[in-house]
Amino acid sequence: MSLLAATGITKRFAGITALDDVRIAVDEGERVGLIGPNGAGKTTLFNCLLGLLRADAGTVSFDGSDITRLPAYRRARLGIGRTFQRVELFSGSSVRDHLLFAHRIRSGTGALWKDILGLGLPKPQELASCDALLESLGLEGMGGEPIETLSLGQSRLVEVARALMTQPRILLLDEPSSGLDRAETAALAGTLMRIQTDQGFGLLLVEHDVELVATFTDRTYVLDFGRLITHGPTAEVMKDPQVKTAYLGDMLVDTP
User: Fold this and answer.
1) N or C: fewer beta carbons within 10 Å in the chain?
2) How far is CA 6 from each of CA 57, 60, 147, 168, rounded to the nearest angstrom?
3) In sequence order, what are the residues at sequence separation of 6 or more whose Cβ sits closer than 8 angstroms to the Cβ of residue 213?
């Protein structure tokens, strides 16, 4: 039984079929890629998995339970974490504030209005948890830093830290390399792989960076015009003629 599974997902917008009978599954501890050209339906599928969109047909299950009709916040509390394609951090707050906010949403502790107004005093154990996670991501000593002072690469890591603070069983990453140079992408991938291996959560990666997908994931799904054209071990998928035609073109990707 897969940790996260979607079957027969179909979604239409104003008569246009964005997803057509798509299926996808991610096991616990597995790293899975989702690729395809612009307009293939990757973001739409992502949002159906998260509960931000309601599919017109199909089911989504998590750990064997049907969550098709659950809202996004209830899916998050089950253990589905995410990051965003565009950095979604709050100005006027510190790095640690973002982690504390995520922790309290996940646990349901503390008054949300106090957190928003900055009146909810963190407990020593909450601070210790935040700082330990930041250290594991290479952000030690930065808990009190204003978000505005961070580089894009550091901001991406804060997003990852915020998602991990919810103790996810599966983490959905939406183009985490967007805006990063090659060195920053490699550093982020290395950090994610180490943390994911240590904690054992499943991971679904939506990416345009084919090299990152090829070196980071175990399996890959490929969408084109809303349909799943192939899936399987990443090294085999990258050699598939349909993938080269639909997405890679003449690009050659060396896979281990």
Assistant:
1) C
2) 11, 4, 36, 18
3) 33, 35, 205, 207, 220, 234
Within 8 A by CB and 6+ apart from 47, the residues are 53
φ, ψ for residue 227, nearest 5 deg: -115, 145
CATH number for the domain spanning 107: value is 3.40.50.300
Give the domain range for residue 29: 1-78+208-256
CA–CA dist 87, 176 (Å, integer):
9
Which residue is it, tokens 């601070």? Answer: 127
The CB density around residue 243, as the number of other CB atoms within 10 Å, is 21
DSSP conformational letter for 226: T
Q: Is residue 19 part of a domain?
A: yes
pLDDT for res 107: 59
Give one DSSP letter per residue of 91-147, joined into a string.
TTSBHHHHHHHHHHHHHT-S-HHHHHTT--PPPHHHHHHHHHHHHHTT-TT-TTSBG
57 shares its domain with 91 = no
How do residues 157-182 score in pLDDT, each as one tens digit? Answer: 888 888 888 889 999 998 888 888 88
Total domains in the chain come to 2
Digit-coded pLDDT (tens) for 106-139: 655 544 445 444 545 677 787 888 888 888 888 8
Sheet with 170-174, strands from edge to edge, namely 80-82, 170-174, 202-206, 31-35, 219-224, 227-233
CB neighbours of residue 118 within 10 Å? 10
